[in-house]
Amino acid sequence: MIWVIIISTALVVFFNRYVFLEPSLPIKLSPVIKKLLSFSIPAILTAICAPIIFLNDGGFRDIPLNPYFIGAIFSILLAMFIRNTLISVVLSLAIFMLLKTGLSSYF
């Protein structure tokens, strides 16, 4: 049953991407749909990242000494000022790891 779900999900994703990325298919989206779709990536990333940043096993994390929150702020600032995705990701991960090891000594 799990393999059926995995394969069917892969097919749905493939055909969804194929329809919109294949230039020979005559599908055109209206400007309203294009504008609505431009908000989907930030919405998905927020839905994935927010629980990791703010929630712990037992509830909310403490904001002042939360390495996840501080790392998220640094990654946002790095992404704003450094327009290279790879460098931003590597620096954000390095800052997060330094924060996590540094702040774990306080607990």
Automatic annotation (TrEMBL):
What keywords does the record list, in alphabetical order? Membrane, Transmembrane, Transmembrane helix
**InterPro entries listed in its UniProt record:** Brnchd-chn_aa_trnsp_AzlD (IPR008407)
TM region positions: 37-56, 68-99
Any Pfam family hit: AzlD
| Designated name of the protein | AzlD domain-containing protein
Report the source organism: Leminorella grimontii
Q: What is the lineage of its organism?
A: Bacteria, Pseudomonadati, Pseudomonadota, Gammaproteobacteria, Enterobacterales
